[in-house]
Amino acid sequence: MDESQKNWIDIMSQWMKLQQVFWKEWVTFTGKSMESMMAVGKPGTILEEGTVAPWKLYQNWVESFQRIFEEEDKEGLGVTVFNRVLRASRVYLDLMDFWSKTLSSLKDIPLGEPLTVDKINDIRQNWIQYYQSMMESLWGEIPSAEMRDTAKALSSSSIAASNFIWSFIEPSFKNMAQLPDVLQRVAKGDRGAVADLGGIFVKNYEDTIGKALLAPSVGYFREFNERLNNMTYSYLQFNTAKASFYSLFYDTGMRAAEKVYEKYAEFVGKEITPETFREFYRIWWTINEDVYQELFRSEEFTKLSREVTSRGLMFRKWVDELFEQILKFTSLPSKRDMDEIYRSLYDLKKEVRNQKRAIKNVEKHLDVKSSPSR
Amino acid sequence: MSENIMETMIKETAKVQQKLLKGFENLMNIKDVESGVTPKELVYQEDKVQLFHYKPSKAVCPVPLLVVYALVNRQYMMDIQDDLSLFRKLVDHGLDLYVIDWGYPTKIDKYLTMEDYILGYMDNITDFVREKSGNEKINILGICQGGTFSVIYTALFPEKVKNLVTMVAPIDFCSGDALLNVWAPFIDADLMVDVLGNIPGEFLNLGFLWLKPFQLIIDKYVGLLDRIDDPVSTQNFLRMEKWIFDSPDQPGETFRKYVKELFQENRLCRGDFELGGRRVDLKKITMPVLNMFGEQDHLVSPKCSRPLTELVGSKDVTTLPYPVGHIGMYVSSRAQKEMPPTVAKWLIDRSGRIAKKRAKKISTKKKRGKAT
User: Fold this and answer.
1) CA A267/CA A280 separation, integer angstroms
2) Edge-to-edge strand ranges of the sheet holding B65-68
């Protein structure tokens, strides 16, 4: 047998070996895939150890592929490059691994039970961990410590962003947990529940956007932004106070209507004349007058009306402040400018008045008449 | 429903329709509704404040009467129409009448204080009337908030006041059970004045409407429909309507002091109210006082007005309640019939003596003036 024949037999035997390994891996992979797919189809089935979970199918296929082609015992540039490419392709596996772990954490949520804020936070913390480990695996081959630190800083900034967003949405989850109960009460006709419903959204707003609006501004437009934010905040505060105020009127109106209908019921069976309609009207307005008088004397009304007025005035104050800032760039006088003029005029007039009086007293004392100036 | 009732309903509907049509015709023909019908003369002006003189055709009382109305609403309510004019009736009873018109404050007046009104304008006007009439002392009639101002003024300048008459004047702000007394402690006067400057008249109107919302916002206009076909009745209604919503703005600083120190802290009654650095002592009011108020007043409760009788130092105090409301004190038929002669008689009985002495003094002064 000559050299070329020997080489050909070598190549063919290596190729056959490769095909054998391929076939073995393929059969194993396919078998486990079928097993896991059958298991997923049956609810309540717990996957046995060793069974390939569906989201792991791709991962296992790549690993088996790498096992086939990775030759660690050989040296040379081609082999080194080939092995490094294979190892680099693991980055996709790490990404897949991250998503598979992320999604698998969702299956831990028990069905039929309320999802608490703490549970959501646990899931979030797990995701952060998966993300961190994924990022570290991605940067794993960095040669220098500085680059490694840079990579860590990059990943930690994402985590910081996640924590910031969580601090923003956590109050919403906590407040919204009360929503189903309140909605049930509203459906049952509980009038107080309507105010409570508004209260939930108000609290939510105050714990999230409200805080953001009150944060101090920075930069060239700082003054303008602060006034704009405060104006927006005070406008929203004013509207929430008005909502509570109106719900009080609604409540009172309902009470008055009940009393009116009770009175109207006395007319059932009696003869209806034009005078009866006058009587209906008289009953309607006198009962409403009495009920609303009772409301106006209540402490609840006086406190709420003070709150509405105060918040409305604060809104007006911030509108004035904002206009003050805008008018600075025009030739129009602002409220502050005019107040300065009014104050000066007032002081001048007062001084003139006092001086006139003094002159008059002096004249009286000297018994001299001055020319009438009034 | 029986046929008779149906027939009645149809007739009633037709009647109402005719009434409404006539009413619209009346409204279209009304150009303007005049008030302030009694002849008067502008005799003094300082800034926006004016003083009008209502001269009697036959003067009976030698001491002039200065009428001080409130800053809230307008004084022409007392002279709203020919047959409902307290001013005309007082003048007809021989009183020499001077009436202060506070005017309509604008933004430029936001810094005017109670000191400016009482120690400034009111004192200047009093001095003017004293000089013009040749009397050392004059009579003062204070109405509503004007009554409070008059009481404060008289306590500070008792030497200038001969007799004091108050009409529905709030003095004890904490005793009242009226809604305004219930709401007053919750008013943030500082915030209102700091933000708004002058307190808009519309804001005060809203407050007054809320005292009886259904009656004043709905029933009043339903009642108008009943008499809208009568042009005289409609005009009278419109005159009143114009006055009700003719509310001047309140100068901020005056409002601040009035609400905080009088309404909320009740300092006038407590005895520690100060004006221009001077303590207002109601016991210094030793001249005769006539205290009139409405027993059904929903704005200034009788409990707010009555205590003046006990608080002043005068030995000649007449308390005169009327079974009417706040507006009824000015325009009810009973008030129109009884009040002017009662006030005129009361004043004339107490004004006679000073006039004779004063007449002698005036003639002496005139002679001295001619000599120099």
Assistant:
1) 9
2) B41-46, B49-54, B97-101, B65-68, B138-143, B161-167, B289-294, B317-322
**Mutation for B interface: A309, A324, A334, A360, most B CBs within 10 A:** A309
To which CATH superfamily is domain B41-184+268-371 assigned? Alpha/Beta hydrolase fold, catalytic domain (3.40.50.1820)
A244: exposed, middle or buried (Cβ count in 10 Å: 0-12, 13-18, 19+): middle
DSSP tag of B80: S
* B188 has a chain A CB within 8 A of its CB: yes
Please report the pLDDT score of residue B370 as a whole number.
Answer: 39
Domain residue limits, chain B: 41-184+268-371
In sequence order, what are the residues at sequence separation of 6 or more whose Cβ sits closer than 8 angstroms to the Cβ of residue A200? Answer: A175, A176, A178, A179, A182
Which amino acid type is present at position B241?
E
Q: Is A16 helix (H, G, I), strand (E, B) or coil?
A: helix
Distance CA B339, CA B92 (A): 13
Its pTM surpasses 0.80: no
Same domain, A282 and A359: no
Q: Please give the single-letter amino acid code of residue B63.
A: V
Tens-digit pLDDT profile for residues B54-96: 998 888 899 999 999 999 999 999 998 888 899 999 999 999 9
State the Cα–Cα distance between residues A232 and A242, nearest whole angstrom. 15
For residues B271 and B281, the answer to whether their CB atoms sit within 8 Å is yes
- pLDDT above 60: residue B289: yes
Residue of chain A minimizing CA distance to B13? A274
The answer to whether the beta carbons of residues A260 and A288 sit under 8 Å apart is yes
B176 touches chain A (CB under 8 A): no
Residues A233 and A271 in one domain: yes
ipTM, 2 dp:
0.83
What span, in angstroms and rounded, lies between the C-alpha atoms of B152 and B275? 9
Q: What is the pLDDT of residue A11?
A: 80
Q: Is the dihedral of CA A298, A299, A305, A308 positive or negative?
A: negative
Please say whether the beta carbons of B358 and B135 come within 8 A. yes
Nearest-angstrom CA–CA distance, B275 and A59: 90
Residue A258, domain member (yes or no) = yes
Question: Between the CA of residue A15 and those of A19, A27, A30, A74, what are the distances in Å?
Answer: 6, 18, 22, 17
CA distance A215 to chain B (A): 24
pLDDT (tens digit, 9 = 90+) per residue, B252-282? Answer: 999 999 999 999 999 999 999 999 999 999 9
Sequence-ordered list of residues with C-beta below 8 angstroms from that of B30, at least 6 positions apart, any chain: B231, B234, B235, B238
| B61 annotated active-site | no
